[in-house]
């Protein structure tokens, strides 16, 4: 129906409007390579192991948010609250640590707080029948307000080394001591956040592809009424997606705050837009029913590399905003072309 | 009357009100095993509403549903499907982005031992049931949005007959089909009737109704205005019932024949 006939209007637009999701993903992958090539050519410091690891670290937060966002977008919804939920979760974890809890249970409480925010979103959307845009916009303000209120807008620091391990540690880190007593980093290791992102991405992809709930997420976004008539518990499916999005925002919040070893209640502003952009660049359709985790990962890396590369090239933060803004519009535009009947 | 002869479906005094609007008003209809009942009426006469109640998509405001003599209460389509009631909706109710097997098994996915989706088994089963309906059905891996109207209809039909179906509700099953596909659906209805499945056929097509149905029931403004064996009425009688629906419900076949066409 939507992609059976492409009426490009005689304009060359059809050449850049991929006919299906996998082609879209391929073009996103191509964009990613072009970005890497471009930045590598302009800045010698860009194409180094260390910078690669920095990008991995930076992307892991947007990537985690993007995975939850993809699930929500595939149901035909949107979650504008993830940036605020991320901050609230980090604050909750930090306060739990301050209250004397060990790091692992403390972080679990932060993630739980995120899941509760997500459950609230889901219930408002399914029970009160409030559009996702409005419901999660409300949660965006609520979660941010709670985070600021709990902390008095003052960052929580002095959280200890254990709290920083998740965000700053790395697997297979190899350090040898030089004769002069100074350490020499042979291999900086794979950062834990990157490993976490990989594990979560694989789990989410498995969930969407191989489990019934994943099939139902796609069915709900594709045709909600049809899904309902087919016996899919549509409300429960949506609730699931929003809880996952909230919990992953919580996880991302813990990664970020752990990296800073400080809980910043004002962290994560506008991260939701990066997450949405990552999903849409990766081929997810805002009208629902379409989206992949692998695509979203590519989208997250496009945004991460764009930010990092522009930084490396000395482009100001203001110009970066402008560029990312155009990228978001461009990505949604392509989505529109794709869905044009 | 022994249990074997109890009607397959008994709708007794079904009511559906939306605020002050009475969409279905005290409607009672029986359906027997191996019987095809045509349900006719204007748009808005309450046919779809009544069928949605039987398929569990809508909860009635009053009345009783009995299946094989036992009272049932459906709170959602799953309940009705578990009771063996399947529906082919006029809109087909397909998830456009999913492929044929995923649509066929939507809500009733086959799973492996580990609870994963058993896509291979679903594909195999889909291939078999779709081949029975349309031997030319090949593109099982494509999203159904890219299929023709006939192929989409075949998927909707396959989904309704694949599972242990006792009652089949068909809402305008041939409205979007070409002549050969319509003939296929007609053949299928006869086949299913022979298997002892009870069928409600909602249709505007008089030809279909008279070719396929054992009985016609007519609704008008939410009320049942006529229920007749197909051989005791003419097309004009039925049209008259549909159009002049305020005739008394006990209007006899002989009286109807005196009404000018």
Automatic annotation (TrEMBL), chain A:
Key words of the record: Cell membrane, Membrane, Transmembrane, Transmembrane helix
Superkingdom field: Bacteria
Cell membrane as UniProt keyword: yes
Predominant cellular place of this UniProt entry's protein: membrane
Keyword Cell membrane appears in the UniProt entry: yes
GO cellular component terms given for this protein: plasma membrane
One function term, GO molecular function aspect: transmembrane transporter activity
InterPro entries linked to this entry: ABC_transp_permease
Ranges that cross the membrane: 26-47, 53-73, 103-125, 190-208, 239-256, 276-306, 313-334
Pfam families to which the protein is assigned, alphabetical: BPD_transp_2
Compartments where located: Cell membrane
Membrane-topology annotation of the record: Multi-pass membrane protein
Protein name in UniProt: ABC transporter permease
Organism this protein belongs to: Fulvimarina endophytica
Automatic annotation (TrEMBL), chain B:
Keywords noted in UniProt: ATP-binding, Nucleotide-binding, Repeat, Sugar transport, Transport
Domain ABC transporter: 9-246
One MF annotation (Gene Ontology) recorded for this entry: ATP binding
UniProt key word Plastid: no
InterPro entries: AAA+_ATPase, ABC_carbohydrate_import_ATPase, ABC_transporter-like_ATP-bd, ABC_transporter-like_CS, P-loop_NTPase
Record flagged with keyword Transport: yes
Pfam families, A to Z: ABC_tran
Family: Belongs to the ABC transporter superfamily.
Protein name, per record: Sugar ABC transporter ATP-binding protein
UniProt source species: Fulvimarina endophytica
